[in-house]
């Protein structure tokens, strides 16, 4: 294909469903849209759209082409994000991603960093989905668990995420405290709703208490903390939250509950001024975080 404008036009027609909608999106005359579609269909020798009174609907051949066009559009969007990060100054977007449960520790650091660079806009992405650095979805990732092995990433050890097994005063008033680890099976627990979770502390708990004891399950760390505070059960929190919320450790924290954290950047952006400035800053804050 030597005319990407035609493919881009077809992509917008499929997205908007009408010639006029595509023309508005592309900033061209509707006659240009029709000409591009006709030329592309003639070049490929197939009909890409069914024309009807309500607009255009992609045929099976059109759907095949548009899947490639969508992927190409995504790639260009992600490339633009990567190029934006290659400027010399500390300004524009800085996209950082981590697990939800690290938010309370990382947010003050990001805000303090932004205070030093007021032209910087922070975009903080959390969740279970792994944001792809190679596609420009983030500049810096803080990952937990085993060391990431993607070949184009620069991986640096950051710190250990220590966990505590805790109960609230509301739970203790109702059920008391376990008499050691061997007494855990008779208590109630708050846990993540993913039975295949790789979190070492959740695997440890599932191996030691019956499934019936896992009485409150949630997918969001904030909701799990709320449930622990409300007395729904005993559960794990990041160690720093224990004192912050007046929670009681039910047994001493174990090393096997901890997970290493890694600072991950893409090799193409690792040496940019913005990324290096943030990496230096967050490393300097490590002792405070711990």
From TrEMBL:
Q: Which Gene3D superfamilies match?
A: 3.40.190.290, Winged helix-like DNA-binding domain superfamily/Winged helix DNA-binding domain
The entry's keywords: DNA-binding, Transcription, Transcription regulation
Q: Where are the transmembrane segments?
A: none
Stored SUPFAM superfamilies:
Periplasmic binding protein-like II, Winged helix' DNA-binding domain
Molecular function per GO: DNA-binding transcription factor activity; sequence-specific DNA binding
List the PROSITE patterns. Answer: HTH_LYSR
Extract the Pfam families matched here: HTH_1 (PF00126), LysR_substrate (PF03466)
Has the keyword Transcription been applied to this entry? yes
The entry sums up its family as follows: Belongs to the LysR transcriptional regulatory family.
The protein's name in its UniProt record: Transcriptional regulator, LysR family
